[in-house]
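ok, trying the design again with the full structure, not the truncated one.
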């Protein structure tokens, strides 16, 4: 039974637009998630990812690099999972490795791993911060690559 609350997006006809990605994902059919539930999952994961990354950044100033790496890395991963709720996890994986964003995806995922290496293996605050900056830049490019024409604009701006 559908909720009659003020935030029931399905009853008012707004929310996540119907596209080829949203209804065809077998994970959502298997889990039985409605569009509204998927939007809640997206918003929840985005908020949790932001809070974890923010807490990680605060902990960095307290010179606890290992806790920083855990919080910041989890925050980034949960933020990535958030978009899976919108378009489907299988579709997201396919889109992540399309030609125009495959390098950004590999750099982003690799730098997440390198943050952990810098914190736990090398134990270098400076390297962790460098890897976080690389991760942030790759995540920004990755995110903007979903906006039509944005990758060409960025490449033109940077000079590639």
């Amino acid at each position: 039974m559908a909720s009659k609350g003020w935030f029931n997006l399905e009853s008012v006809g707004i929310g996540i637009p119907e596209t080829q990605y949203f209804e065809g994902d077998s994970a959502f059919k298997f889990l039985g998630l409605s569009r509204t539930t998927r939007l809640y999952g997206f918003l929840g994961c985005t908020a949790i990812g932001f809070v974890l990354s923010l807490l990680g950044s605060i902990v960095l100033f307290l010179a606890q690099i290992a806790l920083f790496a855990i919080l910041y890395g989890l925050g980034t991963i949960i933020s990535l999972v958030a978009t899976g709720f919108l378009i489907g996890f299988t579709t997201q994986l396919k889109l992540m490795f399309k030609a125009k964003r495959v390098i950004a995806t590999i750099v982003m995922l690799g730098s997440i791993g390198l943050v952990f290496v810098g914190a736990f293996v090398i134990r270098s605050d400076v390297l962790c911060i460098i890897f976080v900056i690389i991760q942030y830049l790759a995540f920004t490019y990755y995110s903007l690559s979903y906006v039509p024409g944005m990758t060409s604009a960025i490449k033109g701006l940077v000079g590639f």
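Keeping the full-length input from now on. Residues 16-158 form one domain.
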